[in-house]
Amino acid sequence: MVTDYLQTVDWSRAQFALTAIYHWLFVPLTLGLSVLCALMETAYYRTKDPFWRRTTKFWMRLFGVNFAIGVATGLILEFEFGTNWSNYSHFVGDIFGAPLAIEGIMAFFLESTFIAVMFFGWNRVRPGFHLAATWLTAVGASLSAYWILVANAWMQYPAGTTFNLETVRNEMTSFWDVALSPVAVNKFFHTVTSSYMLAALFVVGVSAWYLLRRREQLMARRSIAVASAFGLLFALLAATTGDRSGAVIARVQPMKLAAMEALYEGQQGASLTAFGLLRPEAERRDGKGPHYFSIEIPKMLSLMSFRDADAYVAGIDDLVEGNPERGILSAQEKIERGREVIAQLARYRTALEQNDRATAAEVAALFDPATPEGREFLENNYAYFGYGYLDSPWQTVPDVTLLFYSFRVMVGAGVFFILLLALVWWLNRRGRLENRRWLLWVALWSIPLAYIASQAGWIVAEVGRQPWAIQNLLPVSVSASRIGSGSVATTFFLFLALFTVLLAAEIGILCKQIKIGPDKE
Fold first, then answer.
1. Least crowded by CB within 10 Å, which of 95, 396, 457, 497?
2. CA-CA distance, 258 to 338, in Å (whole number)?
3. CB-CB contact of 160 with 198 (8 Å)
4. Any idea what the Cα angle at residue 8 is, between residues 388 and 404, rounded to 5°?
5. Is 481 helix (H, G, I), strand (E, B) or coil?
6. pLDDT tens digits, residue range 399-413?
């Protein structure tokens, strides 16, 4: 039974990762292209130039194809919390469900209501109302992203919560602590700015294709003018919010930061590895160091993480084995404290079954934040509750190799996009872009690179949190539903086939619509 449950956990993780990866192929373009359509329609509203109406309707058509398929994968993703992760849903559903409910009631309804006007209201409503509907669709998409990212950020940094001993569930104590936590706010801005950049690269790449084919050259040049400026602005903002993400992670998820950098031994004035080739774990344990070779920037990791070039950055060994001089508990100590919480919960259940009110009251006092002993117990023990389910301290270390390379793909691509968008904007402004065919090809092939970089960012965020479903409170290994692994495996392959068909359909429809081009008006 234990083996089957572990297989269920693995298949549930695979299914959720599959759904999330496919879903995120559609979301960034939806977020960014909705704003670009709104900007272009604003140009039409201000100038009354039919060119901008025709251009807006073309990009809006591509937006509509992407939006429709993205909704399908998003709905499946939310249902999986109930079907595959019922233990997780029971433990934190009162908190996790709140932002998702707000997203559905407020943001998604706003988005889905005005999208109908956006597509079908060109000749049925006043131009001002149609423009407002387009902007409200874009705002609704970003609001939807915000509330979903609030839920995700709470998994990374569980703020504004308390534990209810009687229900064995976490309950929200402050909605604003959840909604406005530093992780949530920064995650939203970094995700949205990078999505806007991706959409800008999509528009630039498609427009570059038209210039290569000597088609719709005016539309292509003006679309590039809008998208390259828009994309450059948000690429720079994405770099800024990404820098802020590193500082936040250093404080709330130090293991993620250490794994991203393959930093095993903590350092004062730690260097940032710009690029490196990792050794296999077996060679590293022989004392040969984590890299075959690396290019490092002295003291940059300390500066970026703590805004102090001489700050101490904890390494993986510090976090696993402990470092008393730096006030860092070992993972084994955290495991023992977590097991103490689990033992007290078992003691409470036994006391209730035996009607032992004295023992039940004694345990209840330990979980009461209003009492001194309760505050001490919750701070020193319950904060490490999830560790009690781990078997080994090294289970707290995520996949270092995957994180190390994914982070560098994300950052390296981001730097490249800034340079590319700046060059494209400058040459287009000077009227020289269409003669740089090599650059047009680079812009076109940057579209898939943007998606790879976006996926790499989510790998860093989610794989870096492992082994936790909720940081320090609930490991993935005990979050899954008690269902047969065979049923989850079957649906995994069904979803794989379905999502692949949907993705192929979208790519096919988008390519067909791009070949057709804007409507002839």
1. 497
2. 23
3. no
4. 70
5. coil
6. 999 999 999 999 999
Q: What is the per-residue pLDDT for 521?
A: 61
For 75, residues 6+ apart whose C-beta sits below 8 A from its C-beta are: none
Q: What is the pLDDT, as a whole number, of residue 417?
A: 97
- Letter string b/e over residues 281-301, b meaning 16 or more CB atoms within 10 A of that residue's CB: eeebeeeeebbeeeebeebbb
Instruction: Give tens-digit pLDDT for 182-220.
Output: 999 999 999 999 999 999 999 999 999 999 999 999 999
Burial classification of residue 250, based on how many CB atoms lie within 10 Å of its CB (0-12 exposed, 13-18 middle, 19 or more buried)? buried
Beta bridge partners of 275: 295
Q: What percent of the chain has pLDDT over 70?
A: 99
Measured between alpha carbons, how far is residue 69 from residues 29, 203, 343 in Å?
12, 19, 47
**What does the H/E/C string look like for 39-86?**
HHHHHHHHHCCHHHHHHHHHHHHHHHHHHHHHHHHHHHHHHHHHHCCH
Contact 113, 121 (CB under 8 A): no
For 208-277, the DSSP string reads HHHHHTT-SHHHHHHHHHHHHHHHHHHHHHHHHHHHHHHHHHHHH-HHHHHHHTT--S-EETPPEEEEEE
Residue 95's Cβ-count burial label (10 Å; 0-12, 13-18, 19+) is: buried
Half-sphere exposure of 363 toward its Cβ, with a 13 Å CA cutoff? 20
CA separation for the pair 163, 172 (Å, rounded): 9
Q: HSE, CB side, 13 Å, CA atoms: give it for residue 307.
A: 6
Q: What is the largest CA-CA distance in the chain?
A: 85
Position 53, amino acid: R
CB atoms within 10 A of CB 496: 15
d(CA 120, CA 328): 60
Q: Would you say residue 72 has pLDDT above 80?
A: no
Residues 200, 204, 205, 206, CA torsion sign: positive
What letter represents residue 428's amino acid? Answer: N
Cα–Cα distance for residue pair 359/347, rounded to 1 Å: 8
C-alpha–C-alpha distance, residues 474 and 383, integer Å:
11
Q: How many residues comprise the chain?
A: 521
- Compute the distance between CA of residue 317 and CA of residue 294 in angstroms, rounded to an integer: 20
Taking the chain, what is the end-to-end CA distance rounded to the nearest angstrom? 66
Render the burial of 4-15: b for 16+ CB within 10 Å, e for the rest.
ebebbbbbbbeb
Least confident of 14-23, 27-36, 101-110, 151-160: 101-110
Range with the poorest average pLDDT among 50-64, 156-170, 455-469: 156-170
Model confidence pLDDT, tens digit, residues 1-47: 566 676 888 999 999 999 999 999 999 999 999 999 999 999 999 99
